[in-house]
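FAQ: What does the model actually see?

It sees only this:
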Amino acid sequence: MLRFLKGLLLLCAVSVSNVNANTDLIRVALDDLPGVDMLPTLIAIERAKERGLNIKVSYMLSEGMAMRTILNKQADIGMGTPYQKVQQTSAPIRMFYQLNMLRFHPVVDTRFYSSWDELDGVDMYSHGKGSGTEALVNIMAKKHGITYGKMVYLPGSGVRANAMVNGRVHATVVDTERKNKLIARPNSPFKVLPIEKINATDEALFANETFIRANQKELGILVEELLFVWNRMNREPAFIVDQRNNYGLLPKVADIKILQYVQEMVAEGAFSNDGGRTSAFNADIEFYGFAGTIKKPEEQKLEHFWNFSILDKALDSPSIVQ
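And it is asked to produce this:
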């Protein structure tokens, strides 16, 4: 597995560094391997391509990798919630569109553990340092008065879910798609631990402020398509299935699995109709501040982390969400 991941890591890195040098090319670095959870974003990108944008998508193995591609100018748009990195480095990176709120699920193998209290002293596996998954389990540790043995970073919900199936991990956090797969297994030993509803950002698109200022028109098209897809998806989850088939995305995934995922996420209120404009920052400061991901949360300002200039313009054009 380690050899496979290293090879895949090299492949992802090559795919970013060897892209077309065309200055009109917009290079997008997503922070995980392609899965059902990325379909809405990929659909919006395909629709933006139809409007003339030249976009190249690469898949990273973690949010940290996506962030490094932006800092190293190997990509233009990244995916994740880089609060910690932005605060630590004062990098001129700003999020500009909230993709979804955090709807991750702590899962345990009941042959070993069945409650939060039983995880005291146990190793916990999350996506990466400063990630929403790490913040989530850290908050639950505080609430239940427990301390993990150590925090192990294992990027990718699919990777963590497979590790649970193979018996290498007994407590972790996975996304809705993988949670469903684990629970649906025949005689499944897996159980979802209870958590409170959290409206903090799980995934957002971010870019260097210089890129944002220089590409207002191009990013405006992309944001308009994101808003269109998000509004249609919230009204009609089957829209994602139709669009997936139209663009031939993730062809091996059954329609019913896509529909189940989107319906569940919509029912959980994971997708904002306004790109997070009204609530993302406040919810994030509360959540990531309590978790310790953001230091001195009371001193932070929206403009330190977000640039909503393009989103504001798109929201002033209500026709795009019809």
